[in-house]
């Protein structure tokens, strides 16, 4: 069985599904037996999903037009070049 | 001294006499194998033919390959041994230190640096090795005989490093500090898969006059292409046959089926199409069905094997994959399954032999002897990345026609591009800069820069990636001006981040809060991340660009992006845990 620090060394690639199939099985085997790594793995995945789905820092639809107009005005008046 | 006990074989044991003559000592790596003298005899034959015998490559060149590959394997044992041998051969300490610290170009001639580059690629990224790599060596003046030697020495390095990982002998000489391996990102080159050759010239040899071929014919019913490809060095083929005979021949410790299973599982973890096909065939000859052999290659846990054999294969897989260190617990686990130290030693030797053969085969690029039932591809090596590597034509840029119109002077087309990308650019800027007002200034600046430079945009990346790169750089410039003391560019010093909050999260943690509340929690937590981590997280998890695109936009190496992203995600997890973790009481923790 691999150790927790070996698991953490591969964890980044594991989250990205960038480990070969055979190594993935070893990591999954570790997670199945190690409660701490299981919790970290599961909660990190959920963190990524929450962040990805959060629409953070999104520009409200209503704000798009004025901001685009300002840029285009600068370009058309030659201030942008 | 190692995981296994040592027995006294006397001062005249021929392999030890040979090792002492050529290393100055009997290395502990070999003392750790005294439980099976026959294995040592086979190893001495191989070492003699590949390393000790005078040939085209000098001993210094060969030892330099062993040293450089040892560094990449992170094998403290092998590095200490070959460093000392090179010193005793008169190589300057400064030059050795440069090899160890991967500063080969400074230390070596162009051809010797190319030789080590080749060896390292073969040892660490064999499926990506191609005919072009062989041509590069030919361009440096190496002929086919010397390239074959380089491949053999690299394979020997894989063999010795695997033995040292599995047996953990004490170093014979002062250990050196080894930098962390930087082979974490995939090469940009195409995935070849190890069967793109044969790359080297070979000569015809007949089984009637060449005993090794007669032995292969008798044992397998055919002469493996892997052996045919090494006929420029008949003495090495003879030594290999000795080693196979001493490691794989006897069945007094592990059975023949167990050894073939180890070779199969270990070759599968190395994605070696050629060797997996051969070992499946051998297991079939030994009485297993083809489906059973396929299952062992795919996942031995699901195969119909005794649980002790599965434990043995777990161990071999861990050792062969090179990603993990073997520790005392792994040895104890095998002992717990009823295996003796002789069993463990033989398992390590068979796995090391496998890594020798896998490296050799991929270096020579031989085509399979039997039709492979599974051909390993990039998807097996790096499943997620396979989708990023376009296989048919280039990625079509959905903005290409608008860009062409802008380049022809059409301002309406540029307005369309601004509208199309405004939200994306805005998210990137606010995420990186962390301040809406400053982000709005940077927003204008990003699009104005894009407009000014669109004439020189040649479509090497998509417009969207190009724009993201402008936005990221504009935002980074803004950060540098605002916080000159907070360094974005500084190196990561390998500081580890240890998660502290390890309470479980529920099944649907997002349901605990409204969308607006979640967004606010995430934005607040992201803003508190140090900028060098925040920048990477914003691009990867909020913008959802690929690691390669993020690295290009930020002018960072892919491994740096990867390590910062993991750190950012773990820090964010820590920050969000108090809001999303299930209460300790409910979980019974």
Question: How is the main sheet of chain B built?
Answer: none
Overall strand count of chain B: 0
List the total number of helices of chain B.
Answer: 30
- Taking pLDDT < 50 over at least 5 consecutive residues as the criterion, the unreliable ranges of chain A are none
Structural class computed from helices and strand pairing of chain B: mainly alpha
What kind of assembly state do the chains in view correspond to?
Answer: heterodimer
Q: Which descriptor suits the 3D outline of chain A? A: elongated
Instruction: Name the pair of protein chains with the most residues at their interface, and give those residue counts.
Output: A-B, 53 and 73 residues
Bulk shape of chain B? globular
Helices and strands of chain A: which structural class?
A: mainly alpha
Order of SSEs of chain A: HHHH
> What amount of the residues of chain A lies in strands?
under 5%
List low-pLDDT spans of chain B: 389-394, 584-589
Average pLDDT of chain A, rounded to a whole number, is 87
Give the gist of this structure:
The complex is a heterodimer of chains A (81) and B (589). Chain A is mainly α and 81 residues long.
3D structure, described in words:
The complex is a heterodimer of chains A (81) and B (589). In chain A, 74% of the residues lie in helices and 0% in strands. Chain A has 81 residues and is mostly helical. The longest helix of chain A is centred in the middle third of the chain and has 19 residues, at 35-53. With 589 residues, chain B is mainly α. Chain B has 30 helices and no strands. The longest helix of chain B has 24 residues, at 144-167. At the A-B interface, helix 1, helix 2, helix 3 and helix 4 of A face helix 17, helix 18, helix 21, helix 23 and helix 24 of B.
